C-alpha cells in the first residue's frame, strides 16, 4: 500500500518560489520501486503532468510549460518527493497532486498511477 501526504502549497506573487513536498508511506515494497510525479489541475482545465521522476531518481520528465523553472527531486532514504517551483507565473495557479506509479518510471499516462495525494493549492498572484 501507498499513502501520500502533500504539503507546501500557498499564495505567492508572480516571480516568487514555492516548494511542494510529498511524504510517502509504503508497505510491501521499497519507496525506490515507485516512479513518482506531480500533476496539476487548473480551474476549467484537465489535469496535466508537471514533472515525473523515476524510482532511482536518475530520470526525470518535465513539462515544457515549466521547464527551466521547476525541478523535481526525491530522497529515497526519507521517502519524500519534492517539487521546487521558481519564477512562478499566474498560469501556474492550480491544485497540485503528488502521484505514485506502479512502474519504475513516471509518465503522462495516468493509468500507471495507483495512488494520488489529496492535492495542495498553489495560487500565484500577478
Description:
- This protein is an all-beta fold and 126 residues long.
- The protein is 0% helix and 51% strand.
- The protein is built from no helices and eleven strands.
- The strands form two sheets. Strands 2, 4, 5, 6, 9, 10 and 11 form a seven-stranded mixed β-sheet that branches. The chain has a four-stranded antiparallel β-sheet with strand order 1-3-8-7, with no helix packed on it.
- A hairpin with a 4-residue loop joins β7 and β8.
- It is globular.
- The model has no long low-confidence stretch (mean pLDDT 96).
Per DSSP E runs of 2 or more residues, the count of β-strands stands at: 11
* Major sheet details: 7 strands, mixed
Roughly what fraction of the amino acids lie in strands?
Answer: over 45%
Query: Order of helices and strands, N to C?
Result: EEEEEEEEEEE
Number of DSSP helices? 0
The multimeric state of the shown protein is single chain
The overall pLDDT, averaged over residues, is: 96
Task: Briefly note the structural class of the backbone.
Answer: mainly beta
Question: Which word captures the global form?
Answer: globular
What is the percent of helical residues?
Answer: under 10%
What is the terminal separation in angstroms? 40 Å
**pLDDT < 50 stretches:** none
Rg calculated over all Cα atoms = 13 Å
Amino acid at each position: 500500500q501507498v499513502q501520500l501526504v502533500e504539503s507546501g502549497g500557498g499564495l505567492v506573487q508572480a516571480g516568487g518560489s514555492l516548494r511542494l513536498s510529498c511524504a510517502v508511506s509504503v508497505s510491501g515494497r521499497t519507496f525506490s520501486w515507485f516512479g513518482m510525479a506531480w500533476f496539476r489541475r487548473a480551474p476549467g482545465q484537465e489535469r496535466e503532468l508537471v514533472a515525473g521522476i523515476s524510482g532511482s531518481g536518475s530520470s526525470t520528465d518535465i513539462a515544457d510549460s515549466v521547464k527551466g523553472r521547476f525541478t523535481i527531486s526525491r530522497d529515497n532514504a526519507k521517502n519524500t518527493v519534492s517539487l521546487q517551483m521558481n519564477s512562478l507565473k499566474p498560469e501556474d495557479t492550480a491544485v497540485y497532486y503528488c502521484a505514485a506509479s506502479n512502474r519504475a518510471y513516471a509518465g503522462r499516462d495516468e493509468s500507471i498511477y495507483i495512488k494520488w495525494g489529496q492535492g495542495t493549492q498553489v495560487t500565484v498572484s500577478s
